[in-house]
Amino acid sequence: MIAIPVDIPGQASVVVVARGALENLAAILTTHGGSALPRRVLLCFDRNCTVHANQAARVLRAGGVTVTEFGLTATEDAKSASAVEAMWDAALAARLDRGDCFVALGGGLVGDLVGFAAATYLRGVRVVQIPTTLLAMVDAAIGGKTGINRTLPEGGLGKNLVGAFWQPSITIVDANTLRTLGKRELRAGLAECVKHGLIADLALFEDIRRDAEVLANNDESAIDRLLPRAISVKTAIVARDPLERGERAKLNLGHTFGHAIETIPTSTGRLLHGEAVAIGIVAAAAAAKSMQMLSADEEARIANTLENCGLPRMFTGATTANEVIRRMGFDKKNEGGKLRLILPRGLGACEIVENPPDSAVLAGLASIGIR
Length: 371
Ligand code: GLY
Known about the structure:
Layout: E1 2-6, E2 13-17, H1 25-32, E3 40-46, H2 50-62, E4 66-72, H3 81-93, E5 101-106, H4 108-120, E6 126-131, H5 134-140, E7 145-151, E8 157-165, E9 170-173, H6 183-200, H7 202-216, H8 220-240, H9 255-262, H10 273-290, H11 296-308, H12 321-330, E10 340-344, E11 350-354, H13 358-367
Parallel strand pairs: 2-9, 3-4, 3-5, 5-6, 6-9
Antiparallel strand pairs: 1-2, 7-8, 10-11
Helix pairs in contact: 3-4, 4-5, 5-6, 6-7, 6-8, 6-10, 7-8, 7-11, 9-10, 9-12, 10-11, 10-13
The structure holds glycine (GLY).
Glycine (GLY) binds at residues 139, 143, 145, 244, 248, 251.
């Protein structure tokens, strides 16, 4: 078992990484959860993860906890205020008080939704994050971003527009839950791991480059080597900048391009978030190369690594550079009307670039097939 601290002053948290952690959930909560076992838990879970939720519920009940189970549909449309209200009401019906706790078991969408319900119930109760996707294990379930979607005034879904920073008391990563995750979803999570290597850890990037094919097939020893390192990049950045006043924005590498294409249908259907991020990283690398921040060889290494992880590197939908640039302008990661890109500076470091030249944005888009 590895315990990785998230040293946020006044809101310290921990990420526990252990295969089989669910079977030891009560003991892990007692040892690492920051306080005694709660008397009552609202266990909110993705209905696709019922087998893991049943295991968690059984172990907690054996530890003397009263567990109320609450199944969720993990779709962007269901990431709504009405889902949060339903969780508040379930918590009230189960008589949860401020010493009790919500548990979020599922992917990033469930973690965001349940985290927000916990942040607001009784002005904030503890939340335990139990991510069951690779993407949530290394990124979404760490650092306390919670929230729901809202419909935009001009129509369409605005993602995560209402929310709160609410640090989990503990994040528990049990890689055995990846055995029930589809290969496509697993590979989408590798995009965020590549991102973490590019942001801050060249050795991590090089190891993913070497192991890409086995990682893409859920080789368990390669995944076990990867998890603590990819997680540590995130925990270190969040500890230094929990509210995204500066450095945390680097975790958005690939996301401004990625968000702009994520909802446009492609020739093979809709992209997963991690797939859009992979394509967005390829575009960011090309933009960086056009600004002499990256060599042609480094750019190729990034795109090849993503491809070897089984991820797309080109966008195959019907759109234009103008349309994507318009969408990039709406990204909430921009500030003060300025376009902001996170671009790699060599491998293992990146920079926040305000108002990049049009030529760099166009070079990025051209590299993913958008003109
Ligand atoms: N997923 C990016 C962040 O937590 O800041």
